[in-house]
Design a protein that fits this description.
The complex is a heterotrimer of chains A (about 180), B (about 450) and C (about 525). Chain A is about 40% helix and about 10% strand. Chain A has helices spanning about 25-35, 45-55, 60-70, 75-85, 105-110, 110-125, 165-175; strands at about 95-100, 130, 135-140, 155, 160. Chain A has a 5-stranded mixed sheet with strand order 2-3-1-4-5, with helices on one face. Chain B has helices at about 20-25, 30-35, 40-50, 60-65, 90-100, 100-115, 130-145, 175-180, 210-220, 225-230, 260-270, 300-305, 325-340, 345-365, 370-380, 390-425, 430-440, and strands spanning about 75-80, 115-125, 160-165, 205-210, 240-245, 250-255, 280, 290, 315-320. In chain B, strands 6-5-9-7-8 form a 5-stranded mixed sheet, with helices on both faces. In chain B, helix 5 (about 90-100) packs across helix 6 (about 100-115) and helix 6 (about 100-115) packs across helix 9. Chain B is globular, with a radius of gyration of 23 Å. Mean pLDDT of chain B is about 95; it is low at about 430-443. In chain C, the strands form 7 sheets. Chain C has an 8-stranded mixed sheet. Chain C has about 525 residues and is α+β, with helices and mostly antiparallel strands. In chain C, helix 2 packs across helix 3, helix 7 packs across helix 13 (about 470-480) and helix 8 packs across helix 14 (about 490-500). Chain C contains 15 helices and 26 strands. The chains are: A alpha+beta (about 180), B alpha/beta (about 450), C alpha+beta (about 525).
Chain lengths: ~180, ~450, ~525
């Protein structure tokens, strides 16, 4: 389904997100987000604001949680509690390309395990790990909701479907940087 | 049994996602008609259609809408559930990719019927491109006054916002979804109260699936009675069947309710791939009990599938041929549920992980004589109201149905393990099996 | 009001009462973990299932308000099976830590296992663990063992709803969820140890109590915290003369189910005692003396002109202060003062969620006011002492921080001084007469909270060594001064005399204070203190 090569993630270093602040652009986006919800329920902005931060910095560090908590009047412990519930928020910096391999039944029935062996060997890493050059992070995920085109791998924001070891190789080699 | 597609009529149409294309195909006529009607009449029409929730629960949508207390002086909310995370289900994504305006129109009509002026589309976090498509469609619709203030000059206002999830299947459960919108962990709520009375932000809320809402414009346009002529008496209309697994042509197929699984699997999908033989199929997403091949002539409607011992659910059909090891398959599904359990209530939090441990151990060759009894016990006590939400039932039904229809494979694996164990561990207690089990895990 | 049936018994309760509370009214105890009367209902542990006639599924009692004519069964076959199953699920990953776990003896899992669980488990797989969170100091007073956690979230709700510090949260999801603070910050709010109280198991335990004693060996005495004027109710746990811990005792009006860390950790301090026998100092040196001899000496000291100054204590019970008033203040020649220090601000929440603030650092300044004693602050106390040149009777060496300083000792140097004490202070080391003072835990007494409630603190231990409580010393002194005949005296008798004489205590008796949680002082006296 993806025509244009997936761009790499923008990932901030640990130091950069120790004490982050929202720039003007982010602040106006936060205001736009808050307008979607009733005034007394600004907590509803939490998930969208976390997404905004992850788009900007690549992951949600404790510093980001503190900043978000302050901005939305939520305790940092609460922000961390919510962030850690949802698997898509990165709590550690990922590589440039997050390879999310669906390992649920329909994909497995169509050959995911072979794909996984191939990936692990090619990249030299296991699930949950990042290549030494910081290019690829490999994670196993649950059903991606594209089972008719199995096997499916999501790379950053894009779905790659009907994969074989060869087509996956081609895709990975075609990625920038 | 085939008829002209209704929900996915725009398949193959160039630029079908655009407003121009949608208008060209008669789009937003239903909305224009609806906002000139008495909202109660809109609800009546939907009730007459008999359309039932296509997210899995199968609750009549019109009845759900009528639970909203209009007179309560609180804002009402419409939520479109686009969380689509049930394994084997991929129809909502198809609808959004092919015809997002159809979904928006359904949302708008539903919102009007329940007097909501704000609607949220809760879409799973992984559907990034799909969320962008919806936002573009919303912008187009607002631009031409089909959303926003004073819709088509009717005086009715509605804002629709996209709210992205972040990776949690449990947020497909309507009260967990509501918690997630409110910015909290997606933990299902205790019921009562039900969302129609106390929902998002404490206000009356209706949550409907994408496919259910996609039916609405057609129902208003062509009448509830017309919709009810399609399908069966109590399962009306067409259904999007998403077929995956060992078929020649997996994909989303629209057909009237009541089409048999044989027509779907062998007809639409070309039968088992590579000339294989059907062993089993899960008819309605992984939470539905598995059915053996001999149930293939079951009509795909809520009642018939229930009678056959399963659930129509989301209509996600997972097809397995005879190369599939059922112990492996159950382990795969339990991995999913253990991963997705929110952790709130004891039977699901503990039971899902425990069941997974047992099945994994059986699959690795370290099964034990008491294991099946353990699995049955877990399945019995993590379902049927023991848990706060149906995720308990969602992992218990696979356990009991796999054991019912394919128990022999489990027994064989356990017997083989016991035989092996007997040859070199004659006097050690079961726990020593774990030393072996752990060392295998390390390799 | 609503009337319904539970296990065949008819109950009438207020509308909206949940089934747990309603059942308790007829002595039916439904097991609970996540439910706590002081916290919000979450219905997540699933142990409190009951069967309701006409309902196809079991319901959780905590989240079910009673309805008219409901018929409830708490021990039917279905309910017992469900409970046994939930117990098995809870114990499935729970470590077999009982031999090394402080919670043993007051553990929800142990208690309900015996009553409601199975004899064995079907679980033979490896239990999940949380490496790094198995004996971790999550705060200065609380130790965490996440392996034991049953995910009831009482601790999280305490920090969100009661202390409002929001320091604890559940992280991750499913069976891997765990309790933690944000980013390594310690759990350090004024009531932090309360999370160990509410934790039904040994996942959160009190560091100061770790491995000290098995709770079933402890004797528990119902008493009142001496830490400030609020008067939180306390259970004092002791064994063989050693005080091991305070835990809060429920009191709806004053402290709900809670107490602050400061008060709680005064417990251990009660075990130290440096003065345990009467001691007399002269130019010739020190010598131990008998109480009789010491009392005679003291009487002589007080009769000697000029005006003696008596420093009482706002930490004394009403009976002790009444004794002071009756035996000393009434004499025109003797000046009695009660020093007050405001101390750190403390607060606690009662069962209605109302915050109660301390007014000073003493357990009975209010009692002293009701008895019309002269209250002075540290500055005034110093003035009184410096301005006089007569003998001094300091009834409590620890009555005020200034009294414990070198400056205070210097101020009284050269004057005949008698002091009652437990520990050494500069004044104790130079006074002419030193008498061992029993602690408040070594005597029975009533104390009046700053909210005007009179509460009874029972005696936990006999006085150590030769220590005596202040009321007894004053009674003996009165005899030696010639005011009193030889007669039996006790806090109960003193209280009865006090209640007859002082309007604030009118109508109260010791007997009633033993059965009722506390009695408010008489309306007219309310404005005082």
């Amino acid at each position: 389904m993806t025509e244009v090569a997936t761009p790499p993630l923008v990932v901030a270093s640990i130091e950069a997100v120790e004490n982050p602040s929202f720039d003007e652009g982010m602040e106006s986006e936060i205001k736009r987000i808050l307008e979607r919800y009733p005034e007394g329920d600004s907590g509803a902005a939490l998930l969208p604001v976390l997404w905004l931060c992850q788009e900007r910095w690549g992951w949600i560090s404790p510093g980001v949680m503190r900043a978000v908590g302050q901005r939305l009047d939520l305790s940092p412990a609460f922000v961390e509690s919510v962030t850690s519930f949802y698997t898509m928020y990165m709590l550690r910096p990922p590589g440039k390309y997050l390879l999310q391999v669906c390992t649920t039944l329909s994909c497995q029935l169509c050959g995911t395990s072979g794909l996984v062996e191939h990936l692990k060997e090619k990249l030299g890493i296991d699930f949950g790990e990042t290549t030494a050059d910081g290019r690829f992070t490999l994670v196993d995920v649950q059903c991606l909701g594209a089972c008719g085109e199995a096997p499916v791998v999501q790379i950053n924001n894009d779905y790659y479907t009907d994969l074989t070891a060869d087509s996956l190789d081609e895709i990975l080699d075609g990625l920038d940087g | 049994m085939t008829i002209e597609p209704i929900l996915l009529a725009a398949r193959g149409v160039k630029n079908s996602r655009t407003l121009a294309s949608y208008l060209d195909r008669g789009g937003y006529k239903a909305l224009t008609k609806a906002v000139a009607m008495d909202p109660a009449k809109v609800i009546d029409e939907v009730k007459t259609s008999g359309v039932r929730g296509r997210g899995g629960a199968g609750f009549p949508a019109g009845v759900k809408w009528s639970f909203v207390p209009r007179d309560l002086p609180k804002p009402k909310y419409m939520i479109c559930n686009a969380d689509e995370s049930e394994p084997g289900t991929f129809k909502d994504r198809e609808l959004i990719l092919v015809d997002p305006h159809e979904v928006l129109e359904g949302i708008a009509i539903a919102s009007y019927a329940i007097d909501a002026h704000t609607a949220y589309i809760y879409i799973r976090g992984e559907f990034v491109r799909e969320a962008e498509i919806l936002e573009r469609a919303i912008a187009e619709a607002r631009d031409k006054n089909y959303l926003g203030k004073d819709i088509v000059g009717s005086g009715y206002d509605l804002e629709v916002h996209v709210h992205r999830g972040a990776g949690a299947y449990i947020c497909g459960e309507e009260t967990a979804l509501i918690e997630s919108i409110e910015g909290k962990r997606g933990l299902p709520r205790l019921k009562p109260p039900f969302p129609a009375v106390v929902g998002v932000f404490g206000c009356p809320t209706v949550v409907n699936n994408v496919e259910t809402l996609a039916c609405i414009p057609h129902i208003i346009e062509r009448g509830g009675a017309w919709f009810a002529t399609i399908g069966t008496e109590r399962s009306t209309g067409t259904k999007l069947f998403c077929v995956s697994g060992h078929v020649e042509r997996p994909g989303v197929y629209e057909a009237p309710m009541g089409t048999t699984f044989r027509e779907i699997i062998e007809g639409f999908c070309g039968g088992i791939r590579n000339g294989g033989k059907l062993k089993a199929f899960i008819p309605g997403g992984s939470s539905a009990p598995i059915l053996p091949a001999d149930r293939i002539d079951t009509p795909a409607d809520f009642e018939s599938v229930a009678e056959a011992g399963s659930m129509l659910g989301s209509g996600g059909v997972i097809v397995m041929d005879d190369t599939v090891d059922m112990v492996w398959a159950l382990e795969n599904l339990l991995t999913f549920y253990a991963h997705e359990s929110c952790g709130q209530c004891t039977p699901c939090r503990e039971g899902s992980d425990w069941a997974l441990d047992v099945v994994r151990r059986i699959r690795r060759g370290y099964g034990h004589a008491g294991d099946l009894e353990t699995l049955h016990r877990i399945a019995r006590f993590a379902s049927q109201g023991m848990t706060i939400c149906p995720l308990g039932d969602a992992f218990c039904l696979p356990i009991s149905s796999f054991l019912e229809h394919f128990g022999g494979e489990f027994e064989a694996a356990i017997a083989a393990a016991e035989k092996r164990a007997a040859t070199f561990l004659p006097i050690l207690p079961v726990r020593s099996d774990h030393a072996l089990f752990e060392s295998e895990e390390a390799s | 009001m609503v009337t319904f049936t539970i296990d065949g018994q008819s109950v009438t309760v207020a509308e909206g009462t949940n089934l747990i509370e309603a059942a308790l009214k007829v002595g039916v105890e439904i097991p609970t973990y996540c439910y706590h009367p002081g916290l919000s209902v979450v219905g997540r542990c699933r142990i409190c299932f009951v069967e309701i006639e006409g309902m196809p599924r079991l319901v959780t009692a905590c989240s079910t308000p009673v309805q008219d004519e409901m018929v409830v069964f708490t021990a039917s076959e279905r309910v017992r099976e469900a409970r046994a199953a939930v117990m098995e699920f809870l114990l499935e990953n729970h470590p077999l830590d009982c031999p090394v776990c402080d919670q043993a003896g007051e553990c929800g899992l142990q208690d309900y296992s015996v009553e409601h669980g199975l004899d064995s488990t079907h679980m033979i797989d490896v239990r999940r663990t949380f490496p790094g969170l198995e004996r971790r100091a999550i705060g200065p007073h609380v130790i965490q063992n996440q392996n034991r956690c049953i995910h009831c979230t009482r601790c999280v709700r305490f920090t969100t709803e009661i202390s409002e510090t929001a320091d604890l949260a559940m992280k991750s999801r499913g069976n891997h969820s765990y309790i933690d603070t944000f980013d390594g910050t310690p759990l350090d709010n004024p009531w932090s140890a309360c999370v160990a109280d509410v934790c039904p198991v040994g996942a959160l335990t009190v560091k100061e109590f770790r491995f000290r004693a098995r709770v079933w060996h402890l004797e528990e005495t119902e008493t009142v915290c001496p830490g400030c004027s609020i008067g939180c109710n306390v259970d004092l746990g002791h064994l063989d003369g050693v005080i091991h811990r305070f835990v809060p005792r429920a009191n709806a009006e004053i402290n709900g189910w809670w107490m602050c860390d400061y008060g709680r950790f005064l417990a251990d301090g009660l075990n130290s005692r440096e003065i345990d026998a009467p001691l007399r100092r002269t130019e010739d040196g020190e010598c131990a003396v008998s109480w009789e001899s010491a009392m005679a000496t003291l009487a002589t000291l007080l009769r000697a002109a000029p005006k003696p100054l008596v420093v009482a204590s706002a930490n004394f019970s009403n009976e002790a202060l009444y004794s002071v008033k009756r035996n000393l203040q009434e004499s025109a020649e003797i000046m009695v003062v009660v020093p007050i220090q405001s101390g750190d601000q403390r607060r606690i929440r009662n069962a209605r969620g109302e915050w109660i603030d301390s007014v000073d650092a003493h357990s009975n300044s209010t009692g002293a006011r009701h008895l019309d004693l002269t209250l002075v602050d540290g500055v005034a106390l110093e003035s009184y002492i410096r301005d006089g040149d007569g003998p001094l009777l300091i009834l409590d060496a620890h009555a005020h921080p200034w009294l414990e300083t070198e400056a205070a000792a210097a101020a009284v140097a050269g004057r005949p001084t008698a002091v009652l004490a437990r520990g050494r202070t500069p004044i104790v080391d130079t006074a002419s007469l030193v008498l061992p003072l029993a602690s408040w835990a070594e005597t029975e007494g009533t104390y009046t909270s700053s909210t005007g409630i009179v509460q009874l603190a029972r005696q936990a231990l006999p006085p150590a060594g030769q220590a005596r409580p202040p009321w007894e010393v004053l009674h003996s002194l009165a005899r030696h001064l010639g005011h009193e005949q030889e007669r039996i005296m006790s806090p109960r008798l003193l209280f009865a005399e006090m209640a007859a004489e002082i309007g604030a205590f009118a109508g109260m008796t010791f007997g009633r204070l033993k059965t009722e949680p506390g009695m408010p002082v008489h309306e007219e006296a309310r404005g005082v203190g």
